[in-house]
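We examine the record.
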Amino acid sequence: MSGSILVVDDEKGQREILTTILRKEGYRVVDVPGGREALARLDEEEFDLILTDLKMQGMSGMELMEQVLALDPQQCVVMMTAHGTVDSAVEAMKKGAFDYLEKPLERDDLILTLQRAFERINLLRENRLLHKRLEETATIPNIIGDHPKIREVFRVINKIAPTGSTVLIYGESGTGKELVARAIHDRSPRKDQPFFAINCAAIPDSLMESELFGHEKGSFTGAGSREIGLFEAADKGTVFLDEIGEMSVSMQAKLLRAIQEKEIRRVGGKVNIPIDVRIISATNRDLEAEIRKGSFREDLFYRLNVIRINLPPLRERGNDIVALADFFVRKYSAATGIPLKGIAKPALKTLMGYSWPGNVRQLESVIERGVLMAESDHIEPEDLPAEVHEAGGPGGKLPFEFPPDGISIEDLERELIIKAMDRAGWVIAKAAPLLGMSYKTLQYRLEKFGIDKH
C-alpha cells in the first residue's frame, strides 16, 4: 500500500502502536497528540487520510473533523472510539467521517477499513483528474473541432480565462480569432461586464485614438459633443483589438501608455481617467518580423504577448472540416427551413481536398450557399462554388494551367489584385475581402506594385 496518514490520539502508547502497524503496511505516517496539533500539521502538509480518536483532551475528534471538512469536504477521516461512545461515532459518520473503528482495535479490522478508505480516496483522485482534463479540453460553444491543435486551444482558453493577463491570438483571416477572444471573456470573472471588439485595420489612423479613448467636445472638426471611447465604456470588461498589426506606430505608443498606466485621456481632454480592462489582441501578421522592420513596437509586443494562442488554419485540421461542415449544414438548414440530411460523400471528399484560404469563415459561406443551391436532401459537389469543386479533392487541379516554364509569384499576385480591384469597382475596402487581406495590407500591395486605376 501507499499513502499518507495523520494519526491523532492523546495516548502516546496507542499512537506508537498504530504508527508501527501502519508503516509496516507501507503507509507514510505522522502522529500528533491532539486536535490543535493536527490542524497545525495540516497547515504544513496534506494527508490522504486522518485517523483520529473521538475522545481527546482539549479539542475532540468530532471538532477536529468538522474544522477539517469545512476546509476540504473531500478529506477522508476515520474515527476511533471506545465501546461506550459508538453512538457518537455513528453521528460523526453522518457528519462526514468515512468510517469508525471500535477500541480496542483489531489489526485486521484496521487494515481492512484503511484499504476501503484508500480505494475511495484513489477513486476520488481519479475523478478529479478526469474532471480537470475534461475541463481543459472541453468543447467551447461556437468553436468546433477535435484536432489536437484545437484541443490545445481549448485547454489554454480554460486555463488562462480566469486570469487578467493580456492575450495575443495568432491566426490567418477566418480562423475564428474573435470567437476565441469571446470565449476567454465568457469564462473570466469579467463575463458579466462589456466585451467590445474593434478591427484596427478598418479604422483610419486619424480616428483610432478617438475610437479607443474618446474625445471632448470641440477637440476636432465634427466633435460636436463629448464621446467616451471603447476603453472607458468597457471598464471592468474586455477590449478585443483585432488586426493589431495594422495599428500605426504612433498609436501603438498611446496604447502602450494606456496599458502601462491603466489610464487614458480623451482626445482634447486634460484629465486622466483610470481604466480596468482586459486586452485581448489578434493578428495574422508575424509581429516579430514587423518589429525587425520597425513597424511594430517591441515594448508593446511584450505587453500584449503575455499569453499566446496559435489558431491553426483549416487546411491543417483534417477531419474537423467534416464536423464543421455538418454543423453549418444544420445551422443553415434550420435558418432557411430547407430540410437537408447532410453532405453527400463526393461533396465531402471535395471539401476535404480544398485548401481553404479563407479558413472557417470561407467554409461557412460555402456551406450556406450549398444549402440554398441543393436540389436533393444532400449537398452535392455541383452545389458548391466552382472554385471549390474544381480545385477540391485529392489530385484536384489548379484553377489555371501551370505554364511549362513556371510562373512569377509577384506577377500572379499583381494580376489577382488588379482583377479583384476591377470586380470591386476599385474600392479597396470591397476588394480586400476578396483577396483575404486587410484594408491596409491591400493598400500596401497597391503601392508596392504601383497599381492604380487607369
